[in-house]
TrEMBL record:
Any one GO MF annotation of this record: diphosphomevalonate decarboxylase activity
Species annotation: Cynara cardunculus var. scolymus (Globe artichoke)
Sorted UniProt keywords: ATP-binding, Coiled coil, Isoprene biosynthesis, Lipid biosynthesis, Lipid metabolism, Lyase, Nucleotide-binding, Peroxisome, Steroid biosynthesis, Steroid metabolism, Sterol biosynthesis, Sterol metabolism
A single cellular component GO annotation: cytosol
Catalytic activity: (R)-5-diphosphomevalonate + ATP = isopentenyl diphosphate + ADP + phosphate + CO2
Keyword Hydrolase part of the UniProt annotation: no
This protein's record includes keyword Kinase: no
Protein name: Diphosphomevalonate decarboxylase
Length: 366
């Protein structure tokens, strides 16, 4: 860089969808490295509906690392951001772009500063896994900027240190976060179980019951659960390992009834351990409970009226919003129609902020 006035900026933009767990991660065995007490499985959403877009840039004229989220500057001082930045800088490689006159030696990355601008196309911290998409996108875009040689699985182990569920957003389709055994976390990473084409009839619809920031963050909620719940160890040691095997099998065979039963019961158990926490954590509200009740009844009527089995699965994360997974477009259209009839959006909410997902499927309901 030779003391010359800085003229260049190198920039990378990436877009990463969020993911929704169908077998939940809840509880850490190491808070700093973010190592979970059980494996988890998620489905990565369509980037058109819930994603983070991040632009990372580097220039010798930047005098400090800075970050903006949805246009507002936020602090990068948190331990989790710093862990990700440290891990990525440690793996950075030489970057050369003759046309733009850019030549960065790998040791230069320790002294160069970054500007990061991130934008979510959905409400932040309303239980819609914003940290998952955000941290995964940050790690991925920085890895491209700094020319890392690591594959997505290795990058997932870095994203994990930003937010556990972020490691699963490095892949599309169905993804498993293997909890790993090592104390240093080197084997706690995400692997893709099946790509997005494997089961592409599934339709995911999210009803945003509340876009307000949740009162208990996942991080503090799961800490309290691990410290106080008598059920959580039973869940982590006895229940989840069996469900992981069954869920992998259901996904591989595209067996919707098994998939739905596992997803719904795992969501129920996750909220049960939240209630078993002291003081108890209530992520679902009255509307969420009425919705899951309604969905169970819908499933029951599908089962009785047709020769086919269950048509819709639900899962609730650390928030009141219902995530519904319909077997195909036809079921999704019916589901959406009934949802809008039984749970109309509140007067000050428009359809776009109430329902996240492909609303064009409504036409399929006739
Ligand atoms: C209920 O990944 O947000 O969505 O690792 O502390 O950042 P930290 O927690 P986070 O927790 C997600 C919890 C969950 C279940 C899941 O996504 O598996």
């Amino acid at each position: 860089m030779g003391g010359e006035p800085a003229k260049w900026v190198s920039m990378v933009t990436a877009r990463t969808p969020t993911n929704i767990a169908v077998i939940k991660y809840w509880g850490k065995r190491d808070e700093t490295l973010i190592l979970p007490i059980n494996d988890s499985i998620s489905v990565t959403l369509d980037p058109n509906h819930l994603c983070t877009t991040t632009t990372v840039s580097v220039s010798p004229s930047f005098d400090q690392d800075r970050m903006w989220l949805n246009g507002k500057e936020i602090s990068l001082q948190g331990g989790r951001f710093q862990s990700c930045l440290r891990e990525i800088r440690a793996r950075a490689q030489d970057v050369e772009d003759e046309k733009k006159g850019i030549k960065i030696k790998k040791e230069d990355w320790q002294n160069l500063h970054l500007h990061i601008a991130s934008y979510n196309n959905f409400p932040t911290a309303a239980g819609l896994a914003s940290s998952a998409a955000g941290l995964a996108c940050l790690v991925f875009s920085l890895a491209k900027l700094m020319n890392l040689k690591e594959d997505n699985s290795q990058l997932s182990a870095i994203a994990r240190q930003g937010s556990g569920s972020a490691c699963r957003s490095l892949y599309g389709g169905f993804v498993k976060w293997i909890m790993g055994k090592e104390d240093n976390g080197s084997d706690s990473l995400a692997v893709q179980l099946a790509d997005e084409k494997h089961w592409d009839e599934l339709v995911i619809i999210i009803a945003v019951v509340s876009a307000r920031q949740k009162e208990t963050s996942s991080t503090s909620g799961m800490r309290d659960t691990v410290e106080t719940s008598a059920l959580i160890q039973h869940r982590a040691k006895e229940v989840v390992p069996k469900r992981i095997i069954q869920m992998e099998d259901a996904i591989q065979k595209r067996d919707f009834p098994s998939f739905a039963r596992l997803a719904c019961t795992d969501s129920n158990q996750f909220h049960a351990v939240c209630l078993d926490t002291y003081p108890p954590i209530f992520y679902m509200n009255d509307t969420s409970h009425r919705q899951d009740n309604q969905l169970c009844r819908e499933m029951e009527s599908c089962r009785r009226n047709t020769s086919d089995n269950v048509q819709v699965a639900y899962t609730f994360d650390a928030g009141p919003n219902a995530v519904m997974i319909a077997r195909n477009r036809k079921t999704a259209a019916l589901l959406l129609q009934r949802l809008l009839y039984n749970f109309p959006p509140q007067s000050d909410t428009d359809l776009d902020s109430y329902i996240i997902g492909d609303k064009s499927i409504l036409q399929d309901a006739g």
